[in-house]
Design goal:
heterodimer, A: alpha+beta, 7-stranded antiparallel β-sheet, 4-stranded antiparallel β-sheet, 11 strands, B: 112 residues, alpha+beta, Glutaredoxin, two-stranded antiparallel sheet, 38% helix, 15% strand
Chain lengths: 216, 112
């Protein structure tokens, strides 16, 4: 069993090296390769993100991308006036905390984990049913403080039922304890969420179809 | 673990089963599973033979000179129906990669 694994590993390294060689040679052939655009503007006042999503870009916010995979795929950051940690972030996350496939169950799980690493015990101030992209959703409003770090946060989260899965949009304002929250950021976030469209089927939607075909 | 739990319905649809393995005792694993709402079995392997078999446990002594425990490394292993290891990856699991492989294996198995 170990020999087979070792052979596969060697083969994997060989294939990787070959691919790298191909890329390097390709780089020599074209002197100034054009960088692929991350955001492509449309004539609808929106942008396309890697041909996967379409949304309105919040003016003056910085794009955040997760290059290594993990908690989120794309988001925006705004540095706010004031002492650390004065900043606001929002993001689209296709894998929110928890595993329950229904909104209420997922919200219960989500609330126990959200902001866990910040050392805050967030309090849910409001929880309401809503619709996002015409899909059933839950909007969760959080607030919390960390008196040791002298920080506080206020968040709004949409958990959205999309097919068999739950996706999320999350906006969090971070401030020092004596800082002021700016509710206009949540309006920017809501505009982003309302403008958000999927341009392609997700990996999971495609997989569901493949499984149905197999069963077919 | 969260991500595997989310994808359990897909693993089942692809005729795969998930097992978590740790060196913790049964009671610790039970509490861990409860805290993360896990719906798949966690195996308790304090003597580390299973981790060693699958390369997740290094050949160092059980207790390192600084007193820390030589725990399992984080490793995902996919074993097919014939018992052949078809996938090994260290670090955080890449569920999309795993599901893509399982789909391929299921197609192979069904001859499609």
């Amino acid at each position: 069993m170990e020999k087979k694994s070792a052979m596969r590993l060697s083969l994997g390294i060989g294939v990787t090296l070959f691919a790298l060689t191909g890329l390097l040679l390709g780089g020599c052939a074209t002197m100034a390769p054009e960088k692929p655009k991350i955001l492509t503007p449309t004539d609808r006042g929106t942008v396309l993100f890697q041909d996967k999503y379409e949304f309105k870009v919040p003016v003056g916010w910085l794009l955040m991308r997760n290059l290594e995979g993990g908690d989120f795929e794309l988001g925006f950051l705004k540095i706010e006036p004031g002492a650390f940690p004065s900043q606001t972030t929002f993001m689209y996350d296709e894998e929110p905390y928890g595993s329950s496939p229904n909104l209420e169950g997922r919200a219960d799980q989500y609330c126990t984990r959200f902001l866990f690493n910040s050392g805050m015990v967030p309090e849910v101030t409001k929880r309401e049913k809503t619709q996002v992209m015409g899909l059933d959703a839950l909007a969760l409003y959080f607030g919390g403080e960390n008196p040791v770090q002298k920080e506080k946060a206020k968040s709004k989260v949409y958990l959205v039922k999309k097919g068999n899965r739950i996706i999320s949009f999350v906006c969090t304002e971070w401030r020092p304890l004596d800082g002021q929250f700016d509710m206009r950021n949540f309006e920017v976030f809501d505009n982003f969420v309302q403008s958000f469209k999927f341009l392609k089927k997700t990996f999971y939607e495609n997989l569901d179809e493949e499984i149905q075909k197999l069963r077919g | 673990m969260d991500s595997h739990n989310r994808d359990l319905y897909l693993y089942e649809a692809l005729n795969a089963r998930v097992l978590g393995v740790s060196m913790d005792d049964v009671i610790t694993n039970k509490l861990f599973a409860k805290a993360f709402w896990l719906n798949f079995p966690l195996l308790s392997n304090p003597l580390a033979w299973m981790g060693k078999q699958y390369g997740a446990y290094s050949d160092k002594a059980p207790f390192l000179p600084d007193g820390s425990v030589n725990n399992f490394g984080r490793r995902t292993v996919v074993v097919d129906k014939k018992g052949i290891v078809r996938y090994i990856k260290d670090g955080s699991p890449d569920n999309k990669e795993i599901l893509t492989l399982l789909l391929k294996l299921e197609k192979e198995f069904r001859g499609k």
